[in-house]
Amino acid sequence: MESFPMINMENLNGENRAITMDKIKDACENWGFFELVNHGISPELMDTVERMTKGHYKKCMEQRFRELVASKGLEYVQTEVHDLDWESTFHLKHLPVSNISQIPDLDDDYRNVMKEFAVKLEKLAEELLDLLCENLGLEKGYLKNAFYGSKGPNFGTKVSNYPPCPKPDLIKGLRAHTDAGGIILLFQDDKVSGLQLLKDGQWIDVPPMRHSIVINLGDQIEVITNGKYKSVLHRVVAQTDGNRMSIASFYNPGSDAMIYPGTGAPTYPKFVFEDYMKLYAALKFQAKEPRFEAMKAMESTPNLGPIATA
Fold first, then answer.
1. Which element (helix H / strand E) includes 91?
2. Contacts of 93 by beta carbon, 8 Å cutoff, 6+ apart
3. Is the Cβ–Cβ distance between 275 and 259 less than 8 Å?
4. What is the pTM of this model?
5. Which residues fall within 8 angstroms of residue 300, CB to CB, at 6 or more apart?
C-alpha cells in the first residue's frame, strides 16, 4: 500500500527541491491530497487556534448540537441517514470582505487569532498555487490570476466539530463529496481521525498529524489543469469516541472569475465560478461529472441577448 503523501516544505529550499517538487506533482496527479509539515505557520499559533476552537465548541455549540440531535431523534435511527451530517459548524469569510466581526458568540481574542491564522493560510495557499504552476509549466502567478476575477479570490473557513456518534455505521460525519473550489487547507485534529479519501476504489484514512496542514484540490483546479490534476471524493466517518476538530479553509476563485482550461486542448467547459457554485449547492453530494456536463451545456447554449426594436 502506498503511503499517504507527506511534503516537508523546508526541503523546497536547498538541494532536495527537485525531489520535493516531484513529490508534490505525484500527489496532485495521483492523490488530489497531500499533507504539509514545516509549512511556516507556527506551532504556537496552531495550538492557540485549536484550544480556542475546542473551547468555543464546548461553551457555545455543544448544547445546540445535542438539542438538534434530540429534535431529529438521531440517536435512535435504525436505517442509514442520507440527508444530513453528524457535524456542528460555523463559517468565516475572509476575502473579499471579512465577516468575522459579525459572527455571534466569538470572543475578541478568538476573532483576532482566527484573523491571524487566515492571513497565514492565505499566504500559504498562494505559495502552493505557484508551486502547482511550476509543476504544470504555467507562468508564476497564473493560477492566482485565474482565480482573481474583479474583486480578488473568495477565501473562507468552515470550522467543524464532529462529536461522538452512537450510530457511525448509519450517519456520516460528512457525506462523500468533492470540493467545488480551488485549493483547500485543513487543520485537523491530531488525535481523533475520521477523514478519508477515495483512491483506486478504496477509502483511505488521511492520517492525523500534529501541526500539519492537509491540502486537497477542488473542482476548479481540475478544470484549469484540464484534468491533469483531479478533485477527489472524500468523507468524514463519525467516531463513537472523541470529538474531532476540523478547520478547513477554502481559497476559491472570485465570484465573477472566468474558469477554463489553461493547458492543452480543452476537454472541460468555460464558465463563471458563481454559476458553478449555484449548481454545486444543490448537487454537492452527487458525482462531479454531471456538474461539468451541465456547465458545458450552458456554454453551448447561445445567449441571444435583448431583441433589437429599432
1. strand 88-95
2. 99, 100, 154, 155, 156
3. no
4. 0.93
5. none
Question: What strands, in cross-sheet order, belong to the sheet with 202-205?
Answer: 174-177, 234-236, 195-199, 202-205
pLDDT tens by residue, the chain, 310 residues = 579 999 999 999 999 999 999 999 999 999 999 999 999 999 999 999 999 999 999 999 999 989 988 888 888 888 898 888 999 999 999 999 999 999 999 999 999 999 999 999 999 999 999 999 999 999 999 999 999 999 999 999 999 999 999 989 999 999 999 999 999 999 999 999 999 999 999 999 999 999 999 999 999 999 999 999 999 999 999 999 889 999 999 999 999 999 999 988 999 999 999 999 999 999 999 999 999 999 999 887 655 444 444 3
Distance between CA atoms of residues 163 and 238, nearest Å: 8
298 close to 274: Cβ distance less than 8 angstroms? no
Residue 201 buriedness (CB in 10 A; 0-12 / 13-18 / 19+): exposed
Range list of H helices, the chain: 17-30, 43-56, 62-72, 108-136, 142-148, 219-224, 273-283, 289-300
In 10 A of CB 222, how many CB atoms?
21
Name the nearest CA neighbour of 199 among 61, 1, 53, 52.
1
Q: 241's torsion region: left (phi>0), alpha (psi -120 to 50) or beta?
A: beta
| CA nearest to 269, candidates 299, 290, 289, 231 | 299
Compute the chain's Rg from CA coordinates: 20
